[in-house]
Amino acid sequence: MFLQSSISLLDSISPYFSVKSTKYGGRGCFANYDLTEGTIIHQCLLPLSSSIRRSFKKEVCEYCFSYFYGKTLKYKLMSLYFCSQSCLNSFQEMDIDNIYLQSLFNVENLFVKGLKRQQSNQREDEDKEEEMIRQLKQSENIELFIDEKWKQMEIECDLLLSKLKTKERINLIPSINENEYLDIKYIIGILFQMYKQDFCLANNNILSFELDLFEHLQLNDVAKVCAYPFLLYSYLKIYKFLKLSTISQLECYVNTSMIRSIIAKNLTNAFGIRSLDEPDGNKEFFGYALYPSASFFNHSCQPNVIHIRIGSKKVFQLSRNVEKDEELVISYTPFENIELEKRKQEIKEWFFDCICQRCINKE
Ligand SMILES: [Zn+2]
Ligand SMILES: [Zn+2]
Q1: Ligand nearest to the CA of 68
Q2: Distance from Cα 319 to the centre of ligand 1, integer Å
């Protein structure tokens, strides 16, 4: 017991590597001893949360992410589609009292409802967004500006909720676009895991460890909002949507600091879910999944670790021999064979400059 508790959470991710500070800033994974090519250094059986884009929801299995080239999947549970009865069953086994299922169904219904009234509200919505972008660009302290906007949204929602009866709330739930839909589904997945950890007595949840690690992930919302100012408006809308619509069991988690941190943690930590068989350039982007224990790998355009998706499982395997204390690195982009300039463009999304040997040699 003593030994177990003295080992830090980050060190218990894998016997093959430890998470340590890097020389160039931030953390990274370093080999504990000499390792040989082909070694599987880490596996994540399930994502902590995942979200499939709405445009693919009938074609990509909600549970195992299988894709059958545009064919509509046959197994359906409310608004969710599965490739097989066994995936559908696995989803139900993971759920509790249909809380997760019902929550995702609500999002789908509210999205459709929003589409119907979107046209009348669209102009007003665009004006508000433009105004916020203008203010943000003029603000001297962007971080403070973002904090204040979150605070204001919290107050606005609390005020609304104090005045409204539950039935009246529905008309004030904002219309959302497809990207917001994708993020909201991911957020609900995390909220559901928190609920499961807090309220399920039979705590044999294999994702408990991942949820503990989730606490330690890096937040990147300020950098993201600086690069894409419209996102602040979008994030605040997501909060309002959740605050006014989340089902009672998960309501206790919907506060601004929690939702903001859940959003901020997906930005540079989530793995894209892409089609598996097509060549690099044709890989479809189906959505994304978060595996906290795999979030500590840094990027290199010359990785020594490949990551493979097998269904919803993620496997990390050495692509060459590695010496003790060498950093273990993966490629963040699925297009690692592209030329330098295009690579730089892709990597910009993660807010760092790659200093791998290939980039230094301008290859
Ligand atoms: Zn499946
Ligand atoms: Zn590089």
Answers
A1: 1
A2: 28
Ligand 2 centre distance from Cα of residue 19 (Å)? 21
Q: Which fold has domain 2-46+298-360?
A: Beta-clip-like (2.170.270)
**Cα gap 71→242, rounded to integer Å:** 32
In sequence order, the 6+-apart residues with CB closer than 8 A to the CB of 23 are none
Position 6 scores a pLDDT of 36
Which ligand has the minimum distance to the alpha carbon of residue 87? 1
> CB burial class (10 A; 0-12, 13-18, 19+) of residue 28?
buried
Write down the domain spans for the chain: 2-46+298-360, 50-269
Helices 256-269 and 230-245: angle between axes, nearest 10 degrees: 130
pLDDT at position 66, please?
Answer: 95
**pTM assigned to the model:** 0.93
Residue 4 has pLDDT above 50, yes or no: no
Q: Among all ligands shown, which has an atom nearest to the Cα of 358?
A: 2
The model's pLDDT over 342-354, given as tens digits with 9 standing for 90+, comes to 888 888 888 888 8
pLDDT reading at 247 higher than 80: yes
